[in-house]
Automatic annotation (TrEMBL):
Subcellular location: Cell membrane
Species of provenance: Companilactobacillus kimchiensis
Organism classification: Bacteria, Bacillati, Bacillota, Bacilli, Lactobacillales
ABC-type glycine betaine transport system substrate-binding domain mapped to chain residues: 7-144, 163-265
GO BP annotations, alphabetical order: choline transport; glycine betaine transport
Protein name: ABC-type glycine betaine transport system substrate-binding domain-containing protein
Superkingdom of origin: Bacteria
Length: 266
């Protein structure tokens, strides 16, 4: 199997946590010495390579994570990870700059309360993938879920044009969450700007106070390195989503490959 796909795991952008976890996995499972390598590309390139492989029923190994529409659109499965390199479930935390609680208590409260489910995040992601503008998709989701949104904003005083800055990486999941919470905060009276950048600058922006918040901290493993590097320079408001997952994935028709271990000597 490995030779058929040039011993290559098809990955995404270099900065993603899933890429460094995959490098660790290749080492931990002795695949590196077996000539396996990780190919850097982008989510769009990876899913298009996956699409082609599935059309031809060819083997392929990709970096996979949930929530993401790749699991709804394609018959793929996670490989078991007995060495626990990718960790079990992950949660996505909301991380804010120090001092936000005193400077902008209303935004702080809404950000602190913000939480939703993988299914809800997927709904927004799928829309955006279908070509709906992310801000519009966020507005539609908010309109459809008034009770939940009220549970985040209930009793919070409206403000009048205070500015607020959120940073994020342009991954589908982060595009969805950042647009939804930004729109909720706009409805509370904030003038919200959202700015896309690489993952490391996202953490740096909140640590230095250049940005007010980010809602994309996949933990404990995927963004764990940044969490450690910037510890003490941000405030972690806890999970806005529970039940995320990160790992290696293959099409279900690869019936002999069920664990990362199965890639060895194949
Ligand atoms: N992801 C999606 C990111 C976090 C969000 C799993 C591709 C990563 O750092 O790997």
């Amino acid at each position: 199997m490995g030779s058929q796909i040039n011993y290559t795991v098809t990955g995404i952008d270099a900065g993603a946590g899933i890429m460094s976890s995959t490098q660790k996995a290749l080492k931990a499972y002795g695949l590196e010495s077996d000539n396996w390598q990780l190919q850097t590309s982008s989510t769009a390139a990876m899913t298009s390579t996956l699409d082609k492989a599935i059309q031809d029923k060819r083997p392929i190994v990709i970096t996979g994570w949930q929530p993401h529409w790749m699991f709804t659109k394609y018959p793929i499965k996670f490989l078991k990870d007995p060495k626990n390199v990718f960790g079990k479930a992950e949660h996505i935390d909301t991380v804010v700059r120090k001092g936000l609680k005193t400077d902008k208590p209303e935004a702080y409260t809404v950000l602190d309360r913000f939480h939703w489910t993988p299914a809800q995040m997927s709904e927004v992601m799928l829309k955006v993938n279908d070509g709906v503008d992310p801000e519009k998709a966020a507005k539609q989701w908010i309109k459809k879920n008034p009770k939940q949104v009220q549970s985040w904003t209930k009793g919070v005083k409206k403000v009048h044009g205070q500015s607020l800055k959120l940073t994020y990486v342009a991954w589908d999941s982060e595009i969805a969450s950042t647009n939804v919470i930004a729109q909720v905060l706009r409805n509370q009276g904030y003038k919200v700007t959202i700015q896309a950048m690489e993952i490391q600058p996202v953490w740096a922006s909140v640590a230095t106070g250049a940005a007010d918040a980010q809602v994309s901290a996949w933990l404990p493993k995927t963004s764990g390195l940044f969490y450690k590097d910037y510890k003490g320079k941000f405030e972690d408001l806890g999970p806005n989503l529970k039940g995320a997952k990160v790992g290696l994935a293959v099409p279900k028709y690869m019936t002999n490959i069920n664990s990362i271990e199965d890639l060895k000597n194949k």
